[in-house]
Write a structure and sequence with these properties.
alpha/beta, Lipoxygenase-1, Rossmann fold, 2 domains, 6-stranded mixed beta sheet, 28% helix
Length: 414
Amino acid sequence: MTALTAGQRLPLATLGVGTSFTVQVNCTLGGTDITAFGLKDGKLSDDRYMVFFNQPKSPEGALALTAQGVDTAFSVNLAALPADITEVYFTATHDTTPVGQAGALSVSLGSATFDVKPHLKAEKAVMLVRLYRHQGDWRLATVAQGFDGGLDALVRHFGGEVAEAAAPAAAPAPTPVNLKKERQRVLLEKAEREQPQLVSLIKAASVSLEKRGLDDARYRVKLVLDISGSMYDEYRSGSVQALAERALALAARLDDDGEVEVYLFGVRAQRKGAMSLGNVGGFVQRMNIELEGGTHYSPVMTMVREDARKEGHDLPTLVLFITDGGSSNRPAVEKQMIEASSEPIFWKFMGIEAGRVDFDFLEKLDDLKGRRVDNADFFRVPAPIRIPDGELFELLVNELDSWQRDAKQQGILR
């Protein structure tokens, strides 16, 4: 069996399963409820897709509880799930005792096992693993995130309703749960446990977003990194890793998953997978980058746009595009920017100024004519990169609010 770690995201095909398989949860803490939640865009919009001891299968049987006890099992048929069910969470909850007090708590799927117990402290409600659609395929994410409260708290977390016990007429109504703020709180708690150095960055990103009225905004965040040879010093010094961590801090405030899809470009374009709280430490070094002898924006822009279309338009995309020079084949890039101005994507270009650098082309993209809306912003920073975090986040979200307003007026955003 392959041992998984928290924060991993991998295609189900790599685990040796097809569209029908079994998810098994081993938990030795008596009284623990194991539940599967089928969600639409992050919400339990249909409570028939909450599968647990009191409702052992979904309407069409695609999710079914088949065994209970120390070893709880669910049968899963992804092909039978409705198309609007975009993710499935498997969870563990206990009404009185922290789930982490279990002698053992693990999830098995195909050829892999995820030991959840080492990642828990005092949580009574824990999201164990998540299945989700990604570019037309299904993937597994190891989560191990939780918060105080039992099953009721978890249902509210996913946007469902919980019947309240009768209360005296004079009693105040319960405070509605803000699903986005609750998820952000969970992410912040995870950062405090696993990546404490990021907590101050996440808070700084929050301040910049709130200043622009974007405190409730939701975006997918993508990080695009230049790997031309002239970037050597920035990679060697750790500046690119530091920028990646700041991109992740911004994603923790904008994206429910708190992850960043990473792309590289030089002569060609490359996808490098998702960066998350679970793997951010040393992420750039682990990419084993080989620098290239050219700078071509267009191939990676095509790749980002294709991926955004496959992921769907339920969320807009914020692209953090970092480079230290201009692009070859500039007419192709201008054409891309004009076409992309009708898509829910905002491009933030950051130029690293080392020596005699010509950023005239990036400045032209910032003010490019012929676009449906202004879908880009550009700023420059001197090398070595020593800009204060508060100032950097202000620059990273500059014009995002005005683009969001204009894109809604033009019908680009819902």
